[in-house]
Amino acid sequence: MQALIAGGGIGGLAAALASARAGWDVRLYERAPVFSEVGAGIQLGPNVVKVLHGWGLADALAAVAAFPDRLEVRSAISGQTLGILRLGDTIAQRYGAPHATVHRADLHGLLLVAAQQAGVVLKLNQTLSAFAQNAEAVTVQSGDDPPVEGEVLVGADGLWSPVRQWLLGDGPPRVTGHLAYRALLPQADLPETLRSTQITAWLGPKLHVVQYPVCGGKSLNVVGIVEGRSGDDLDNWDQGTDGAGLHAALAGSCTPLQNLARAVPAWRLWVLCDRPPMQGAYQHALGRVALLGDAAHPMRPYLAQGAGMAIEDAAELGRALTQALDPAFDVPTLLSRYALNRWERNARVQARAIRNGQVFHADGMVRWGRDLSMKLLGERLLDVPWLYGGP
After folding, report:
1. Which of 79, 101, 188, 327 lies in the 20 to 30 Å Cα band around 59?
2. What is the pTM (predicted TM-score) of this model?
3. For this structure, is 212 an active site residue?
4. Catalytic residue (choose from 29, 95, 212, 302)
């Protein structure tokens, strides 16, 4: 049984690893000439860390990640603490795994090593140009190479997924009107007052900033998201910038936050795009073709679960493919089961992420109510049992 994976990012490598662990032969097609992962840091909730531990990656993750002891939410205007969620041992005992923060390249690297060790065939510099499926197989075409046939095609090819367009033809993702400024700072180069071992989220009108350690605590990841016009050049979604737009948005914010922003010598700018929450299982799989991660459900980063949902998708895909070794099951039925088991959870996360963005960026009476509620309820508001407890 052969699985064909389109895309060599975090979702694609997770899908390849899960498929190989399910007993399948796996070919992964990546259009870039080398494996690499852009971006800075990502958060992995206990629901995601539990999956990685189940794949035998606990030691590899511990070697590169940080495990903050708390999440602190502060007002970007006054600097006042609004609420605290205990992480570390507290969250690990509650949900069976810790909350981790990691550099995207480190997570990508450990998944790449694991996939290679599992026997995944990695095809670099390969751009899929088409696929065709029938009752018996799915066939992919890459350039002038002969077609390759498999039992499953997994589109894990990201936000602008060609596989999704061939399968669903539902057009490009939507521009959110939100811009993300990202930076990675060596902690040793920062003043003592700016170094941190925890996650801090600063909430302000039409903006928020998040900071947390990565690379085992050696670096500080900083992300500032503001609402503003992105322009029409979406091909240039990742670009260098001096951060003038972020600094202008932060005018009037508290001194500690402004000091943090001024400590960043250069920023990378991302134009945030997403799709509406999933409407049905058909958006996850049709026939012998499945979509995974951003190809299926790109989401805003306000719940810190984009990579996490891709990894959860991969785990569910692996469970489905394990059953395919039983002749009583056919592949399209198992992919339908994968889709049915995933789409509602992903839709809920997408919707909650949109709502969180509105809450984070609130102003006026809504902001006042948010701050008061967080002071009164604190951890009860910040904890997300339905999410962190796993699907």
Report:
1. 188
2. 0.95
3. yes
4. 212
